[in-house]
Amino acid sequence: MFVKRLYERFASLVQELTKFGTVGAIAFVIDTAMYNVFLFAVDMGAMTSQVLATIISTTFAYAGNRWWTFRHREQSGLGREYFLFFLLNGVALLFNVLTIGFAKWTLELDDPVSLNIARLVGVGLGTLFRFWSYKRWVFLEATDPIPAELPEVKQPR
Predict the structure, then answer these.
(1) In this structure, what are the phi and psi dihedrals at residue 106, rounded to the nearest 5 degrees?
(2) Along the 157 residues of the chain, how does pLDDT read in single tens digits?
(3) First to last CA, the chain
(4) 33-56 residue pLDDT tens
């Protein structure tokens, strides 16, 4: 019984982590592409580029996580979830901004490779925070079990 529960617990966690990672990877590609477009093509500053890229990629990530990764969890209202999702992503954005700022102003590294490496460190730290905080505050455990499949509909005779 204990082993079965342990397996079920970790199977569910692995499934959530896989979906979360897939959504996150796509959001990361969007974020990285937009960051580099804003920074090098549009010639915005490093911080402004990161904030704008994060807004765009976070919108995608919310949709992917709400309707795919955590669809089996309680839906506590789009407005509440969206607000908390963006708030927590704002906190996670601090990891990116701090690592970019450290590389740029403390280490005086402002070349594209150094700034993107700094972003990777910030993304890694932010990702750990996001997964934990989404499960804790945004996508809550379901109070009623959600069926894995839709019930069969009896056809009239």
Answers:
(1) -85, -50
(2) 777 777 777 888 888 889 999 999 999 999 999 999 999 999 898 889 988 998 899 889 999 999 898 888 877 788 888 889 889 988 988 998 899 999 999 999 989 899 889 988 998 999 889 888 988 888 887 766 555 565 565 655 5
(3) 43
(4) 999 999 999 989 888 998 899 889
122's tokens: 């910030």
| Surface-to-core class of residue 36, CB atoms within 10 Å of its CB (0-12 exposed, 13-18 middle, 19+ buried) | middle
Q: What is the CA radius of gyration of the chain?
A: 19
Structure tokens at 8: 């079920």
Q: Are 134 and 85 in contact (CB under 8 A)?
A: yes
Residue count (the chain):
157
Q: Following DSSP, what letter does each residue of 22-38 receive, concatenated?
A: HHHHHHHHHHHHHHHII
Q: Which of 60, 56, 132 is nearest to 92 (CA)?
A: 132
- Cα–Cα distance for residue pair 142/23, rounded to 1 Å: 21
CB 82 within 8 A of CB 60: no
Q: Which residues contact 57 (CB under 8 A, 6 or more apart)?
A: 27, 28, 30, 31, 34
